[in-house]
Design goal:
- The structure is a single chain.
- The protein is α/β, with parallel strands linked by helices.
- The protein has one domain: Rossmann fold.
- Helix content is 52%, strand content 14%.
- The chain has ten helices and seven strands.
- It has a seven-stranded parallel β-sheet with strand order 3-2-1-4-5-6-7, sandwiched between helices.
- Helix 4 links the parallel strand 4 and strand 5.
- Helix 1 packs across helix 8.
- The longest helix has 29 residues.
- The chain is globular, with a radius of gyration of 18 Å.
- The termini are far apart.
């Protein structure tokens, strides 16, 4: 069976880089995002360059029933997903009480509910086949509370915990589950999250190509959690020995400084 990777948030940033790398390896793709023009341009380019089959699905996965409609569409087309890259997500920075409520709820949907629904849709087929993998793109934010980005940090903690639990459930059954935890990465995320003014983020920002390579390597090695970048790994690891009250104060101070 030819491997087929479903990638969410595929129109830009890490999603498009995942697509390019996997296409270069000869894998078929299902690209999902809201921006039709970008998706079709990327799909055409990857098909021409690598001769792979690319299925494009334009969808806002936060809408009710969107995941069910996506899976039904794939079934109608006879597309079997062997690997899932839950990459779509975004963050918002600011005081929780002042940020737009619906936007924060949508963030929870995209960062938490959608990865769970997609994993639930494709995992039974992977287990039946005895092969496949799910890569969830979390964040180093998952390891600590994040005042002034409280909801975003919480969504990534959820995704990390879900990934580790699922990894253990399917271990030994031919299916890999991994959580990729990058730190700040040079993608469009900075603009959406209003973090372009952050000197710290620019200093810590990693190269997206390495983040993608680290994530795929972890998935293929069935490594439950991978923190991309040595400094990020050291900072994330230090959270195990840092009192929670200290961690949240430090994170809060940094987030407030970014908005100053």
């Amino acid at each position: 069976m030819t491997d087929c990777y479903l990638i969410t948030g595929a129109s830009a940033g890490l999603g498009s880089l995942f697509a390019a790398r996997l296409a270069a390896e000869g894998h078929d793709l299902v690209l999902v995002a809201r921006r039709a023009d970008r998706l079709h341009q990327l799909a055409s380019a990857l098909h021409e360059q690598h001769g792979i089959h690319v299925t494009v699905i334009v969808a806002d996965l936060t809408e009710a029933g969107a995941v069910a409609e996506l899976t039904a569409d794939l079934e109608r087309q006879g597309v079997v997903v062997t690997h899932l890259v839950n990459n779509a997500g975004y963050g918002l920075r600011g005081p929780f009480a002042e940020l737009d409520g619906p936007s924060q709820a949508r963030m929870i949907d995209l960062n938490c509910r959608v990865p769970v629904e997609l994993a639930h849709a494709v995992l039974p087929g992977m287990l039946a086949a005895g092969r496949g993998g799910i890569l969830n793109v979390a964040s180093t934010a998952a390891f600590q509370p994040g005042p002034w980005m409280a909801v975003y940090y919480a969504t990534k903690a959820f995704l990390l915990s879900f990934s580790e639990g699922l990894h253990e459930e399917v271990r030994g059954r031919g299916v890999s589950v991994a959580a990729l935890c990058p730190g700040p990465t040079r993608t469009e995320f900075f603009e959406v999250a209003d973090m372009t003014d952050s000197a710290l983020s620019r200093f810590l920002a990693g190269e997206p190509g390495k983040v993608v390579a680290d994530g795929l390597a972890a998935l293929r090695a069935n490594r439950a959690v991978i923190v991309s970048g040595r400094l990020n790994a050291a900072l994330a690891g230090s959270m195990r020995f840092t009192p929670r009250r200290v961690a949240r104060k430090v994170a809060g101070t940094l987030q407030k400084a970014r908005g100053a």
